[in-house]
Design goal:
The complex is a heterodimer of chains A (279) and B (337). By secondary structure, chain A is of the alpha/beta class. Chain A has 6 helices and 15 strands. A 9-stranded mixed sheet of chain A has the order 11-10-9-12-8-1-6-7-13, with helices on both faces. In chain A, α3 packs across α4. Chain B folds into 2 domains: 185 residues, Rossmann fold (3-Layer(aba) Sandwich), CATH 3.40.50; 119 residues, TPP-binding domain (Rossmann fold, 3-Layer(aba) Sandwich), CATH 3.40.50.1220. Chain B has a 7-stranded parallel sheet, sandwiched between helices.
C-alpha cells in the first residue's frame, strides 16, 4: 500500500480586480471599496486537488499568506472539501515580491514535511506575474509544470502526467513527485461548497496560523526587506486612449453604409491614429 | 536582504534570451531585440543574444545576422527540448560566469518558466510580464512597466542592488524590427554541465497547432458577449473583409471561438490595422489587447459601454442588424481589398 497523497493548494485572497483603483493623491492602490475573493485560477487549482482526492484518496491542505481577515475566505475552501488550512500571517511578510513570497511559501510547505504535490493557480489577478509557482519549486529544489490544462496521477509510480499549454500548442509532461504544478484558469469547473461541511466551518482547529518565527527564516529574507524589486511608480491605466470616439448613428442600414465607407477610406491609406477627438 | 550572485559594479551588458523551439526563434525574442538595441544604444552597453538548445549550428548562423553584438550559444543533448530545470541549470552557469547587467526574456510559457526558476537560483529580482521597458534617468536602472488588477493599474518596477536585472516582456507589445544591416555578430560557444539528476521532468509529447496566430492578423473581427447568436454573421463579415476572428474572454468561455483567438490580458495582444469589435463591454482586461490597433470600430447597444472609450468609430446599436448591413455592403461592393 503506497502512502496517501498529500496535496497542498496555494490560495491567494485578492481584491476583485474591477473594484481596485489608484488613489490619485497618494499614487497608492485604493482597495477600500474592493471585496475579497479567492484568486480565480487558484479555485481551479483547488478543484484539481479535490478531484485527485476523490479518485485516489489522500488529504488536501490549503495555504495562504495574508492578514487574519482572509480566514473566512479560506473557509470557503474547507467547505468545498479541503481538510486543513494554513495561514502565514506576520507583518514581516508584508511587501514581499515574488522572491520573498515564494521563499516564505516554500519554507512553510517544507515545515509540513510530507507534501507530495503543490498546486497553484497560473497567476494572480492582482500581480499577474506567474512567477511564484516556479519560485516555490526552485526554493524546494523540486520539478515544476506550469499552465496545466489536465493533471493525472499514476499512484503506483507516484508520477503525474500533466498536459500543459505552451506558445503554439501543448505538451505532455511526465513529472515525478514531489512537484509544483500551476493550473490554467478555467481548466475545470470549481465545485460548490458542500453544505454538509458547513458545521465544520466554526472549528478553530481546522485553521493553523504560522508567523515568521514558526518558519525559522531570517527576517531579512522576508517581506519588503527580502525583496530585490521595488515599485518606482504607480498609475491608473490610461482610460482615454487617444481614440477619435466618433459617433455614427442612423438606421442599421445607414450605419452599415457609413461604416463600410469609413473602413474602405481607412484601408486605402487615410489613417486615423493621432487625431484628437473633437470636444 | 538576500546576498546577490554578483554586484552591480561587476555587471556588464544587456542580454536577450533567444527562445527557440525545434529550431525556430519565437517572434517575441525578435520583438525584444529592437527594444534591447534601443536600451543598449542609450546606455552604451553591448547587446548579447543567448541561444540554448540541443544542436544549434543552424540557429547560430541565423542569430549572427540579427542586430546583436555577440551571440552566446549553449548546446547540450539534455537541452534539445525545453524543460525548466535543465534550462535553468544551464543558463544559471552562464550568467554567473558572464555577469550580465540586464537579462530579458519573452513572457511565453518557456520564458516565464525559465525566468521564474533562474531568478530564485540567482537570488535576484524579476519584473514579470512587462508592457514596456526603459532606463531610469540618472541611475540607468531598468524600469519595467507592468499591469495589475486585470490591466487597470500600471506599476513601474526596478531592481536596485541585485543582478542581473531580469524582466519578461509580453508578446506583441514591441514591433518586430526590420532586418539588420550590420556585420555578422560573433558567436561564442559555451560549455555547460547539465546534471541528468536535475532533469526529472520528461516531455512525453509535443503537439504544435497549425492554427492561426491572431497576434499577426492585419484585420480582426472581434466577438464579445453581445454577439450571442451572431457568430454566422460575424464569420461572414470576417470572410468578406479578409479578417481573422478574435473574441473576448466571455465569448471564448461560451465556446463561440477557440481559446487561441482570445484577445486581452489572458489572451493575445493584437496589433492589427483594423479591429471591428461587436458587443464587447470594454473591460480593461480586454481592451489592453486591442490598444495597439490602428483603428478600432465598436458596436454595442449600451451607450454607456466602456468599449466606446477605446474606439475610433462608435455605433450605439444592436449587433445583429448592423453586422448584417455591413456584410451586405461589403458583398455588394465585392469585399474590401
Amino acid at each position: 500500500m503506497t502512502r496517501e497523497l498529500h496535496t497542498l493548494v496555494c490560495l491567494k485572497v485578492v481584491p476583485k480586480s474591477e473594484e481596485v483603483g489608484v488613489d490619485r493623491e497618494t499614487n497608492t492602490l485604493d482597495r477600500a471599496n474592493a471585496r475579497s475573493e479567492i484568486n480565480p485560477p487558484d479555485m481551479n487549482a483547488l478543484e484539481t486537488a479535490l478531484a485527485l482526492k476523490d479518485r485516489f484518496g489522500g488529504r488536501v491542505s490549503l495555504m495562504s499568506m495574508g492578514p487574519p481577515f482572509v480566514i473566512p475566505t479560506l473557509r470557503v475552501g474547507l467547505a468545498m472539501g479541503a481538510d486543513h488550512a494554513y495561514l502565514l500571517s506576520d507583518r514581516a511578510f508584508g511587501g514581499a515580491d515574488t522572491l520573498a513570497t515564494s521563499l516564505t511559501l516554500a519554507r512553510a510547505i517544507e515545515k509540513l514535511g510530507d507534501v507530495d504535490l503543490v498546486l497553484c493557480g497560473e497567476e494572480s489577478s492582482d500581480g499577474a506575474t506567474a512567477q511564484v509557482p516556479p519560485g516555490i519549486a526552485t526554493w524546494m529544489d523540486i520539478p515544476q509544470a506550469t499552465y496545466a490544462m489536465d493533471v493525472d496521477f499514476e499512484p503506483g509510480q507516484r508520477h503525474l502526467v500533466v498536459t500543459r499549454e505552451v506558445r503554439d500548442g501543448e505538451e505532455v509532461l511526465d513529472v515525478p513527485l514531489p512537484a509544483v504544478v500551476s493550473v490554467k484558469v478555467s481548466c475545470n469547473e470549481p465545485r460548490f461548497m458542500d453544505t454538509g461541511r458547513f458545521a465544520l466551518l466554526d472549528n478553530e482547529e481546522l485553521v493553523t496560523t504560522w508567523t515568521a518565527d514558526d518558519l525559522g527564516v531570517d527576517r531579512e529574507h522576508l517581506g519588503l526587506a527580502g525583496s530585490p524589486t521595488s515599485v518606482a511608480g504607480l498609475k491608473e491605466a490610461a482610460q482615454a486612449s487617444g481614440r477619435r470616439r466618433e459617433l455614427v448613428s442612423g438606421t442599421p442600414e445607414e450605419e452599415g453604409k457609413i461604416l463600410y465607407e469609413r473602413i474602405i477610406e481607412f484601408l486605402r491609406g487615410a489613417g486615423t491614429r493621432g487625431q484628437e477627438a473633437p470636444g | 536582504m538576500i546576498d546577490p550572485a554578483y554586484s552591480p559594479q561587476e555587471a556588464r551588458g544587456i542580454w536577450v534570451f533567444l527562445e527557440q523551439d525545434a529550431g525556430v526563434l519565437a517572434p517575441v525574442s525578435l520583438e525584444l531585440l529592437a527594444k534591447a538595441r534601443a536600451l543598449a544604444t542609450e546606455s552604451g552597453a553591448e547587446l548579447t543574444g543567448l541561444l540554448v538548445g540541443g544542436d544549434l549550428a543552424a540557429l547560430e548562423a541565423t542569430a549572427a545576422k540579427l542586430d546583436l553584438d555577440r551571440v552566446v550559444s549553449v548546446a547540450h543533448p539534455l537541452l534539445t527540448q525545453f524543460t525548466a530545470e535543465a534550462y535553468a541549470h544551464a543558463v544559471d552557469q552562464v550568467i554567473r560566469t558572464q555577469k550580465p547587467d540586464i537579462f530579458l526574456l519573452g513572457a511565453t510559457a518557456y520564458g516565464r518558466d525559465l525566468a521564474g526558476r533562474l531568478a530564485v537560483m540567482l537570488r535576484t529580482g524579476l519584473t514579470a510580464d512587462c508592457t514596456d521597458l526603459a532606463l531610469e534617468a540618472g541611475t540607468g536602472l531598468l524600469l519595467g512597466e507592468v499591469s495589475g488588477f486585470g490591466g487597470g493599474v500600471l506599476a513601474t518596477i526596478r531592481c536596485e542592488q541585485h543582478r542581473p536585472q531580469m524582466a519578461t516582456v509580453r508578446p506583441g507589445v514591441f514591433p518586430e524590427p526590420a532586418a539588420a544591416d550590420r556585420a555578422a555578430a560573433k558567436v561564442e560557444r559555451v560549455n555547460v554541465d547539465v546534471p541528468a539528476a536535475k532533469c526529472l521532468v520528461k516531455v512525453v509529447a509535443r503537439h504544435r497547432k497549425t492554427g492561426v496566430d491572431i497576434s499577426r492578423a492585419e484585420r480582426l473581427v472581434v466577438a464579445g458577449a453581445g454577439a450571442r447568436g451572431e457568430m454566422p454573421n460575424i464569420e461572414a463579415l470576417a470572410q468578406a473583409l479578409g479578417a481573422e476572428i478574435g473574441a473576448t474572454r466571455v465569448a471564448v468561455d461560451e465556446g463561440w471561438a477557440e481559446r487561441e483567438r482570445q484577445i486581452g490580458q489572458t489572451g493575445v495582444i493584437a496589433r492589427p490595422k483594423l479591429a471591428l469589435v461587436w458587443g464587447a463591454s470594454g473591460a480593461s482586461q480586454f481592451t489592453c489587447g486591442i490598444d495597439q490597433a490602428e483603428m478600432v470600430v465598436a458596436v454595442n447597444q449600451d451607450p454607456e459601454a466602456a468599449i466606446f472609450e477605446s474606439a475610433d468609430i462608435c455605433i450605439v446599436d444592436e449587433v445583429a442588424p448592423v453586422v448584417k448591413a455591413l456584410v451586405a455592403e461589403l458583398q455588394s461592393h465585392g469585399g474590401a481589398e
